[in-house]
């Protein structure tokens, strides 16, 4: 076994109905809370429930319901001003990855000079150990941000989607309550579930940072997604499937916290910065088929392992055969969950591909890939993904 480091400071509260503990948990960190969340109507019962649970423990709740998919610097800055004006002492993110990422960034904005964007991982300032406590309640099963040291934000002025990244951004407490995911539509279930799979797959196949401990998490996460995502899409009330997906999401978050992501996420971030209407899970689905076929020969054993997760019959095949078949298995899975799509399907102009290709290299994710891509490689992959 090779040497490795593994660290995650988040207090994880996993289980059906654990949101009932939110008031007691928050009371340990402050008395005035900013709840950061989206404006979707489906979340209103959850927001109301959390507000009451907090108020029952004497905690004042100020709401910021201004978060949307691919959250922007404007959202973070607006939320920061609300937090400062109300002198809050704890930040609560409620929702999917966007809400929790904004909550993390607001904690930076409130406690540091300038805007939170100035503390991005690329060419940014260092985040100091003075953040307001961050509590996360996740209502989707995909991003894993409730246990990661990352906050992903888009700056629309320059069409860039970057991350703030520091271990201090790991939430103090994460409530991972699968019951809260029952309101997700079939498509959002698919998109977030695919994101969770990709986190684990990329951690598992990382050329630079994979380890035996991460592999253990990643393999179990992928297995759970493969088995349970189609079930949850067909029946949103299926408790076992929802629990399995939420745990897979958590395992994926723990994996990327320690092994990072690879080329597909680098391209996915560039897509989000230039086509904000595309959900992150969709962005990954756009490019995975072509990237897999470009990559598998450089990670034969691990692609073979994943192929056998999808199709146990491949256990009797040589690794090289199982690895190549893994590409077909992932394609078929994307079709099964309604995520087989192209840039053309998502109304992305061909001219935008060049910008996406250029922006891919503004993040280091491509360096972790089994085969390090050149600019020509990325453009070729994007063009092949335009219309399938």
Describe the structure.
With 388 residues, the chain is α/β, with parallel strands linked by helices. The chain folds into two domains: 11-181, Rossmann fold (3-Layer(aba) Sandwich), CATH 3.40.50.1970; 186-384, Dehydroquinate synthase-like - alpha domain (Dehydroquinate synthase-like, alpha domain, Up-down Bundle), CATH 1.20.1090. The chain is 48% helix and 12% strand. The protein has helices at residues 22-27, 44-55, 73-85, 97-111, 186-205, 212-234, 239-259, 263-274, 280-295, 300-310, 319-336, 350-360, 375-384, and strands spanning 11-14, 32-38, 60-67, 90-95, 134-138, 150-155, 160-165, 173-176. The chain has a six-stranded parallel sheet with strand order 1-8-5-4-2-3, sandwiched between helices. Strands 6-7 form a two-stranded antiparallel sheet. Helix 2 (44-55) links the parallel strand 2 and strand 3 (60-67). The mean pLDDT is 97.
The class by helix and strand makeup works out as alpha/beta
Kindly provide the name of the CATH class of the largest domain. Answer: Mainly Alpha
Note poorly predicted spans: none
Helical residues, percent:
40-55%
Number of structurally distinct domains: 2
| CATH-level-2 architecture of the largest domain | Up-down Bundle
Distance between the termini: 41 Å
Largest sheet: 6 strands, parallel
**Number of alpha- plus pi-helical segments:** 13
In round numbers, the mean pLDDT is 97
Order of strands in the sheet with most strands? 1-8-5-4-2-3
User: Can you tell me the overall shape?
Assistant: globular
* Rg calculated over all Cα atoms: 20 Å
The strand count comes to 8
Q: Kindly identify the CATH topology of the largest domain.
A: Dehydroquinate synthase-like, alpha domain
SS strand fraction: 5-15%
CATH H-tier superfamily of the largest domain: Dehydroquinate synthase-like - alpha domain
């Amino acid at each position: 076994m090779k040497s490795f480091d593994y660290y995650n400071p988040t207090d994880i509260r996993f289980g059906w109905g654990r949101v009932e503990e939110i008031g007691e948990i928050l009371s340990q960190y402050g008395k005035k809370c900013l709840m950061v969340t989206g404006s979707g109507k489906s979340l209103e019962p959850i927001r109301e429930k959390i507000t009451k649970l907090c108020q029952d423990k004497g905690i004042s709740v100020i709401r910021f319901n201004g978060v949307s998919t691919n959250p922007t610097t404007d959202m973070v800055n607006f939320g920061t001003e609300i937090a400062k004006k109300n002198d809050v002492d704890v930040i609560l993110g409620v929702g999917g990855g966007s809400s929790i990422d904004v909550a993390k960034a607001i904690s930076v904005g409130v406690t540091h000079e300038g805007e939170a964007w100035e503390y991005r991982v690329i060419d940014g300032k260092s985040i100091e150990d003075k953040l307001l406590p961050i509590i996360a309640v996740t209502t989707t099963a995909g991003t894993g941000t409730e246990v990661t040291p990352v906050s992903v934000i888009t700056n629309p002025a320059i069409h860039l989607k970057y991350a703030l990244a520091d271990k201090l951004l790991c939430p103090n407490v994460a409530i991972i309550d699968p019951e809260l995911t029952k309101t997700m539509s079939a498509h959002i279930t698919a998109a977030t579930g695919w994101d969770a799979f990709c986190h684990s797959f990329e951690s598992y196949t990382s050329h630079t940072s994979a380890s035996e401990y991460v592999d253990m998490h990643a393999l179990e996460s992928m297995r759970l997604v493969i088995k349970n995502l189609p079930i949850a899409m067909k029946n949103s009330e299926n408790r076992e499937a929802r629990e399995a997906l939420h745990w897979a999401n958590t395992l994926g978050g723990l994996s990327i916290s320690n092994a990072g992501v690879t080329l597909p996420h680098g391209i996915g971030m560039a897509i989000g910065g230039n086509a904000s209407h595309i959900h992150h899970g969709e962005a990954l689905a756009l490019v995975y088929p072509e990237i897999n076929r470009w990559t598998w020969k450089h990670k034969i054993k691990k692609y073979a392992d994943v192929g056998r997760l999808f199709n146990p019959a491949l256990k009797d095949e040589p690794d090289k055969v199982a690895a190549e078949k893994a590409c077909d298995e992932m394609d078929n899975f994307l079709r099964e969950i309604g995520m087989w799509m192209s840039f053309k399907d998502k109304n992305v102009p061909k001219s935008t591909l060049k910008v996406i290709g250029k922006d891919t290299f503004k993040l280091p994710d491509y360096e972790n890939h089994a085969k390090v891509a050149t600019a020509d490689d990325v453009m070729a992959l994007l063009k092949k993904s335009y219309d399938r």
